[in-house]
Write a structure and sequence with these properties.
alpha/beta; five-stranded parallel sheet; three-stranded antiparallel sheet; binds BIS(adenosine)-5'-pentaphosphate
Length: about 220
């Protein structure tokens, strides 16, 4: 865990390529700020698990490594931020992903800071293809870090329900990277021009990345 810092912020955006560590670092930021995590990827997977029409429609895009249409995503966010736990702000994870989504968000919610976690493409495929998570507590792991995986046990909650994501395969990851570079990466400049961007080198130990994020946020949260 990083140094405790006084962080008093409204909404925060976690931004970066697939596998950058957004979900991993979200746990730390939530514990430091008390903000609830709003992950559009998790919301789409939940909609699919429920068998809703929206989830089934989104699956076509997710399986192909393409972005789900802006209108669908913006509609989801408009509804989510009306919920009680979002009244003091939220931690957006994986949203916005296009300029159109960022423009829509600016009409819905004040964003204090955008944390961009940078990781080179060549590291991404290994990270994604080795990822698994706990179906019960949501903890995220990687094959090479967590020996308990071999025994099929979650380090955080001792559940044996460990799972891999349907879109975590090399072919889909390469499409997701293409979508990131063509449609999402331009958002970094968009937010930088608005004085909101915090850039963090994500190609280091998880704890080092977390410490840099907290230091960057401390400078924004006064
Ligand atoms: P989404 O679920 O958001 O996936 P993503 O952006 O591709 O990001 P990931 O969840 O794969 O990675 P992450 O950055 O959270 O990394 P993690 O911490 O898990 O989106 C899925 C799909 O939904 C999209 O392709 C799209 O179709 C759709 N979608 C979602 N939002 C959308 C939107 N706004 N607009 C349109 N479409 C949308 O870490 C990955 C692995 O690396 C783990 O194994 C972890 O243990 C490991 N790791 C983490 N940090 C480190 C480190 N520092 N060093 C080494 N390994 C590390």
């Amino acid at each position: 865990m990083g140094t405790q810092v006084a962080i008093n912020m409204a909404s925060i955006v976690l931004f970066g390529p697939p596998g950058a560590g957004k979900g991993t670092q979200a746990a730390l930021i939530m514990s430091e700020t008390g903000l609830p995590q709003v992950s559009t990827g998790d919301m789409l997977r939940a909609a699919l698990a429920e068998g809703s029409a929206l989830g089934l429609e989104a699956k076509k895009y997710m399986d192909a490594g393409l972005l789900v249409p802006d209108s669908v995503i913006i509609g989801l966010i408009e509804e989510r931020v009306k919920e009680d736990d979002a009244s003091e702000g939220v931690l957006f994870d994986g949203f916005p992903r296009t300029i159109a989504q960022a423009e829509a968000l600016s009409q819905i919610e004040e964003v204090d800071a955008v944390i961009s976690i940078e990781v080179p493409d060549e590291k991404i495929v290994d990270r994604i293809c080795g990822r698994y998570s706990c179906a019960d507590c949501g903890a995220v792991y990687h094959d090479t870090f967590n020996p308990s995986a071999e025994q099929g046990i979650c380090d955080s909650c001792t559940s044996t329900q460990l799972k891999r994501r349907a879109d975590d395969n090399e072919e889909t990851v390469r499409s997701r990277l293409e979508a990131y570079h063509s449609q999402t990466a331009p958002l970094a400049l968009w937010y930088d021009e608005r004085g909101k961007l915090i850039v963090v080198d994500g190609d280091r130990d998880i704890s080092e990345v977390g410490n840099d994020i907290l230091s960057g946020m401390a400078g924004f949260g006064d």
